[in-house]
Amino acid sequence: MDFKFLQELLVPAQTKIVLLIMDGLGGLPLEPGGKTELETACTPNLDALAGRSILGLTQPAGPGITVGSGPGHLAIFGYDPIEYEIGRGALEALGVDFELGPDDVAARGNFCSVDENSVITDRRAGRIPTEVGRELAEILRTIKMDSVEFFVRTVKEHRFAFVMRAPGLGDALSETDPLKVGGVTLPVRALNCESEIAAQYANQFIEQARCLLANKHPANMITLRGFAKLPHIPTYPELYGLNSAAVAINGMYRGVARLAGMEVLHVCGETIADEFATLEKYWNDFDYFYMHVKKTDTCGEAGDFAGKVRVIEEVDALMSRLLALNPDVVIVGGDHSSPAVLKSHSWHPVPVLIYGKYVRPDGISEFGENACSRGSLGILPATHVIRIALANAGRITKYGA
Amino acid sequence: MDFKFLQELLVPAQTKIVLLIMDGLGGLPLEPGGKTELETACTPNLDALAGRSILGLTQPAGPGITVGSGPGHLAIFGYDPIEYEIGRGALEALGVDFELGPDDVAARGNFCSVDENSVITDRRAGRIPTEVGRELAEILRTIKMDSVEFFVRTVKEHRFAFVMRAPGLGDALSETDPLKVGGVTLPVRALNCESEIAAQYANQFIEQARCLLANKHPANMITLRGFAKLPHIPTYPELYGLNSAAVAINGMYRGVARLAGMEVLHVCGETIADEFATLEKYWNDFDYFYMHVKKTDTCGEAGDFAGKVRVIEEVDALMSRLLALNPDVVIVGGDHSSPAVLKSHSWHPVPVLIYGKYVRPDGISEFGENACSRGSLGILPATHVIRIALANAGRITKYGA
Fold it and tell me: Which of A286, B125, B139, B243 is the most buried (most CB within 10 A)?
């Protein structure tokens, strides 16, 4: 997909687009011949909308590829997730709502247990309670150096996000976790010249952490993995001229949206209804809204088929509030599949509907995997969705005469 | 699309292919749940042919992109319309049946009105009648220079096609139209070294035009836009070994066909029936025929739903004459959509059927947008169509053992 080609064809318009993502939407039947979660759910509003929409199945990163939520979101936002890779460290920092800047190198941190010879005896420090993790993070925050800023943010239990901030740091850095009990924690090595200084800073941080944590067994050492800066991604305002906003509760999705140049709105509360209220509140202020529903994925990963069905029904019941705003284009889809029977993300293509005043409806009044597989969009790369939405929003002019 | 890969697999055959293009064929219903133009039209012959064909929806330049007829035709001819761009000036010259050569730089010309300070007071010279445009073009034709040939062809009203012919001219030239009333006409600037001489010629032409038109108010000046040479395009005989012909009445389509190396046949008359008569007349002389029906698009752009329906029915009634010739492969499709409700070209994928003795028919005896969305071809790039046609015509041999 050539951004430059598209950008030359973009024209302003007074139209509004809503992208509603149910995380891990795609599913599987519980038994052969059965229905998926989405097909099981009673969704009169989505079914009616489907009848006025074009349907298809999206693939975030090509056939057979299961993606994490990071690449899944990049894809449905229109970015090739293979070209624009978000490293694990950066995802971890985004996940705790850390506002990663262009000078930041992030990593996933673990507290771990080591013996007197620095040999790892427990890679997760006995899964210390999150509260203990927070106290230890406070201790790590006392580590200061003149030329670099360090940030430590507790994630959960033994996990934390680590960030180094200084101009010109590289992120080609080896990991310190030997990935097995019985191994020695490794020093950080620079994998290119630009990353030499970052390696020094990281090693100095680790040595100070070793001293500060010496008597904190089982959490008497740390490991750092997945060093990564944020990729530079052309933003929605730059690419599409879209004044765009994100409605999402969880940090990682807020982070990926911020990466794409969306303004991340404050949601009062934590329910899906609160998210729809946020959409209503800011409706007049933006051209494009990305809305994220997390619980479909949480249920899918937990193997909770019925729970995922209920979340989808909850979203369906709220659709009337969205449609009452009279959006010009509505996309309902997912970032990837998370079938409850697999208790994990999966490679299955994800149902999508695109509604607009000028779509040529498929005439299929049902929103489900099987219905979408019969839709006119067929199986399409998730990256195509934004283009079709922009066209239907009157934001792409004619190419050539 | 890799031409080289395909070319190595091509084999000669005694088969005939017909590509019948109804310009702007794709449409939209007048009201929700209604039928498109093509679905409304009574088309017993096309429906019967569809039942023996494979169906799909073509995209000329990817999802969401609306194309002009130039790129739309390049795509259905098998050329990537983004790689092979035909500039506006070249299209204007092709549109008046000017036989653009490889040394020619073409531009769109406008007569305009300027005041004594060269400030534009009317960018279209009050839309002078075409007859006045012709008289003024005669005047411009008196401009001569030794090292370059100039051509001026009236298009309509204040518009004309302008062509400079000399070896080695570049076409990276800035436009002279300030695009607003109150601006001064600009000189042509070369945007690269190869175009310096072309800029000089154009400016000398403009200065002579200014003198010759001085007392011809309101058409007392010209502007030139969209300077372009023809792209070099590998031709049908070169690419496919096809001895190919075009049956088209309007200049632009004749021009694009000529660019693709087709022999442009003379059509006696201006009706669609006259085009079918031309096909019959030359049937024995070529392997491949491109036939172009313009009025579907004209009606679509005029918002004339019923008119577009009638044109499609007129084509349907003539299909028996085409099929009586016993072609091996028949493609019926369009270069883009032009829904009457939008009164313009649009991004909607375009219905296509491919008939051949050895297709595996979809068993859908209906030719329409919805029927085609259920066809086995799905949504496909328009550039793929020629390959499927060649295969069905026995013109592609096996790859590998």
Answer: B125
Task: Check pLDDT > 90 for residue B144.
Answer: yes
B377, B376, B366: which is closest to B40 by C-alpha? B366
CB within 8 Å of B280: residues ≥ 6 apart: B321, B325
3-state secondary structure (DSSP) of residue B130: helix
* Cα–Cα distance list, A397 to A34, A225, B69 (Å): 44, 46, 14
Chain B residue at shortest CA distance from A377: B379
Taking the CA of residue A56 and the nearest CA in chain B, the distance in Å comes to 11
Any chain A CB within 8 A of the CB of B34?
A: no
**Contact assignment for A396 to B91 by CB distance below 8 Å:** no
- pLDDT confidence of residue A1: 54
Residue in the structure block whose two tokens are 């051509």: B151
- In whole angstroms, what is the distance from residue B1 CA to residue B384 CA? 8
Distance CA A339, CA A318 (A): 23
Please list the alpha-helical segments (H only) found in B112-186: 130-140
Asked whether the beta carbons of residue A388 and residue B347 sit closer than 8 angstroms, the reply is yes
Select from A2, A6, A52 the Cβ nearest to the Cβ of B32. Answer: A52
Q: Would you call B347 and A396 a contact, using CB atoms and an 8 Å cutoff?
A: yes
| Alpha helices, DSSP H, located in A167-266 | 196-213, 236-240, 251-259
A240-298 pLDDT, tens digit per residue, is 999 999 999 988 899 999 999 999 999 999 999 999 999 999 999 999 999 999 999 99
Ramachandran bin of A315, using left for φ above 0, alpha for ψ from -120 to 50, beta for the remaining angles: alpha
- Residue B307 neighbours by CB under 8 Å, 6+ apart: B295, B299
Q: Cα–Cα distance between B92 and B88 in angstroms, integer?
A: 6
CA-based nearest residue to B392, from B340, B345, B327: B327
Measure B50 CA to nearest chain A CA, in Å: 18
Sequence-separated (6 or more) residues with CB below 8 Å from residue A15:
A287, A328, A329, A393, A394, A395
- Distance from C-alpha of A254 to C-alpha of A94, rounded to nearest angstrom: 8
**Partners of residue B57 in chain A, C-beta under 8 Å:** 376
pLDDT for res A162: 98
- DSSP state, A173? B
A52 vs B contacts (CB less than 8 Å): 32
Among A138, A302, A281, smallest CA distance to A219 is for A138
**Cα of A357 to nearest chain B Cα, Å:** 9
| Nearest-Cα residue of chain B relative to residue A54 | B373
Residue B8, CB half-sphere, CA atoms under 13 Å: how many? 5
